[in-house]
Amino acid sequence: MRCRDPTRFLQVVLVVLVAEVPSAWAAPPCTGVDRSLTTQQKAVLAPEIANQLQVTAEVLQSFRSNGWGIFYVGTHDADDTYLFYSGDPLRNRSIALWSGAARNDEEQIIEAWTLKNAPGIPLKLAVCFARHVAKER
Prior knowledge:
Elements: H1 6-19, H2 39-53, E1 58-65, E2 68-74, E3 81-86, E4 96-99, H3 107-117, H4 123-136
Antiparallel strand pairs: 1-2, 2-3, 3-4
C-alpha cells in the first residue's frame, strides 16, 4: 500500500506521537500547590488542630491552594491523618478527614473520594493529594 500524501501521513504520525507523550514529561501534579510549612506555622496550627481533634497533634506537612489547605497531622493516638480545610484552620473546622494507607493503583479512587468529601476543593489540590498519598508517601 502506497501513501498518496506523505505530508499528511507525517502530520498524522506527529499528532499520534504528541498525544502519546508520556505523562512523566507533564508537569508534576503538585506544581503550583504550596507545600511550605515553617516551624513557626506548625507551632501556631498544632494547638488549634489538637483542640479540634481533642488529642495531642503535631502538624507534619501541608498542601495549600486557593484558600484551601490539607494538613498532615500526627496524633500519636492513631494513624497519622490528613485534615481538609476550606479556609484558615485557625478560624474554620476541618470538613473532611482521611487516614490510612493507599496502593499505587488507587490514585484515581483517592482523587474521587477527595472531590466528593471536600466539595469545592480545587481540582489541582485534589489531584496533588491523591498522587502524594498513592505514589509518594
